Amino acid sequence: MTLLKFIRNIRLRQKLLLSYVIVIFLPTIVLGLYAYQSSKSSLNSQFQQSADNEAKKLALEISYRLQRQDVSMKSIVFHPALIDLMSNPNQDLYTQFKTLNDKIEPIFFNLMYMVGDMTEIMLYSENRQSELGNFITPSSAVKDKDWYLATKGSESTKWWFEDGELFATRVIHNIDLQIVSAELYVRFDYNKIFGDFIGKMNEGKGIIITDQQNRPVLTEQVEQMDDVQLQSLSRSGTSKAKLGGESYLVINKDIPQTDWILHYLVSDNQYNTGIRNILSATGIIVLICMVFLSIIIYLFSETLLRGIEKLNTKMKMVEDGDLTVVVSTNSKDEIGQLTDRFGSMLKQINQLITEVYQTKVTQKSAELKALQAQINPHFLYNSLSLINSKALRIDAQEISDLVNHLSSYYRTTLNKGKQIIAIQDEWTNVQAYIHIQLAMHNTRFDVEFDADDKVFQFEMIHLILQPIVENAIMHGIDLLREGRGKLILRASLDGEDIVFVVEDNGVGMEPYMIARILEHESSGYGIKNVQERLQLLFGSEYGIIIHSQLGIGTSVIVRIPQYRHIREEDS
């Protein structure tokens, strides 16, 4: 009790000095051992993580190279002329040769010339008994090949490496009958695909790529493995292997889009070298700490006490309600960091107070604008309804019709603030707009509507057709000097897409004008805005195409996918 009382009553400075002296050696040694074990564990984790990341990058790089070739193969198997030729072997021979020479062989020669990695392209037809041209032969020639049955039962590209040849295969479907009509065989230059990997691996690292039967596709920077060693390689996760008396960490990764496995090998010597370096560094650091720790303890004690006293004073001021006090220090130790963080916390509290106030003001403003947005359309519809009622009372049918068209136009245009609208409503919107324009033009042009009712079960982006129709009237029909203008609107299904066509017999445009309206903003709600909205939602393959001839007229084609917004959200 006397010792405890003595320790409790001595000053803080003396307590610190005494505690530092007592525990200086033991904690230093313990911390040194702990640092060594932690560093060793961390190095092991980093070693495996680094190897895993490198293996993943290699697998993705190989997959990317193969996917580039897969894009070229897809351009072949989905080519309409090729599908038609493979699906109709009973066409007359002249038609087949003409299709082959005019539409198919030029594609093959261009791919082999432009891609460069392709060395052979061959189509094996299921329906033919004889060869046709340079690229088509009966599938009976390869029915005994391993790849034939595997390809025929797959919907994706299959990659193979046999007898030193790298090639890929893919089926071609008969679209009408949903059966396989042919198999595409493409052979590639092995060195152009894998040339960057050959001879480029760092010392102590290597790669092995194997197929489904664990046969080697590529072996680099490691000794050749016999069949027993290849079969022992794992096809997933992490494993160990011993080659040529050296131990390796093996990272196994699937190569996407293929049935191949990448085995990434890293020598254990790299890990052991790192461990030795950590042990040496830890011993030196512990020795330096034990020598100099006694010298700096006194300095630490002084700065610690001074910082605590200063921080205590500032905290007392904040406790008394002064949140504007500035708390900072030039010290970088824990007390200095604690002081700076306390000061930073005070700044953040003041900022939060200001932000909460500003957020409340902004929220009230947004609520007011939302209320106005709800009131204005309601007021507009009531006003139009009143005008219609008064027109009917005085038997002004034309005024009534015009008001009804205007009401319908604004109802679908506003669309309750939503960006997605039923195609039926968009069609109603543009019809109402055209009827209004007819009234404004004293019916000086004719209008023709032609819509397939099947398109009305789908949805689209709001306000797409009206800007196009407006341009057709203002910049096409209105500028006619002779004859009567005509506007035609069509809507139809085209495969999995929906196509809208707006035609006019106006003055037409020159090519530079077409590019200009698609690439530059115009006054009001222009075509460029429509194009950007379509491609933002549906992708660059959809949007607007314009055909025009001076003095003949203009045709604007809008292509969108068959889209159902509500169903996609629910899924």
From TrEMBL:
Its EC number is 2.7.13.3. Its main location: membrane. Keywords: ATP-binding, Cell membrane, Kinase, Membrane, Nucleotide-binding, Phosphoprotein, Transferase, Transmembrane, Transmembrane helix, Two-component regulatory system. The chain crosses the membrane at residues 16-36, 278-300. Residues 302-354 form the HAMP domain. PROSITE patterns: HAMP, HIS_KIN. It is a multi-pass membrane protein. It is found in: Cell membrane. Residues 465-564 form the Histidine kinase domain. It catalyses: ATP + protein L-histidine = ADP + protein N-phospho-L-histidine. It is an enzyme of class 2 (transferase). SMART domains: HAMP, HATPase_c. It comes from the Bacteria. GO terms for molecular function: kinase activity. This is histidine kinase. It comes from Paenibacillus macquariensis.
